[in-house]
Amino acid sequence: VEALVAAAARLLGDDPPERISGRRLAAEAGVNYGLIHHYFGGKEAVLREGFNRLAESYGAGPEDGSWAPTDPFSMRQRPDFVRALAFASLSGEVYDAHVVHPTIDAALERARRGRPADEDAAVRVDVGIAAVLHLSRCLFESTLSPWIEADGPETAEVVEEHLVLVLRALMFGLDPGVAARG
């Protein structure tokens, strides 16, 4: 069972769910194809567990504590999770909404601390927008980096600092336009 879930997590970081066959999954795990049906009932259940494994692993962060999943743009540290999330989203197979970003609850809790209780809907909107910014920055980093770095590494650092300020402003109900200007 463990080998199948680990194999599913690895494969989901490289390919969309529809390109992962049960036979490929079994081969990656080094087990008989029949075990997928015996233990999980089908490929979809194994992939769901693999996706959950990736999400939980990201949410736990690294053992060495070199980054935290609540850090701005921390998904860069786990490109396999970003790819799996993107593939699953594009294919319409995001398995469980609550694991799309394992730190959303922590982000909501942190954002709620500094805001009045009657602003809960606004907090959810702000955290949702922040999550979209976080994910899109990590997902499109390689596409945006050449453009951002065109004027040199100093420009890239300034852009990164401003993006972090915007992300934090969204989380705490501040004006992201003011934050973007530094």
TrEMBL record:
Residue span(s) of domain HTH tetR-type: 1-58
InterPro entries cross-referenced by the UniProt entry: Homeodomain-like_sf (IPR009057), HTH_TetR (IPR001647)
Pfam families xrefs: TetR_N (PF00440)
PROSITE patterns hit by this protein: HTH_TETR_2
GO molecular-function term, one example from the UniProt record: DNA binding
Keywords: DNA-binding
Protein name per UniProt: HTH tetR-type domain-containing protein
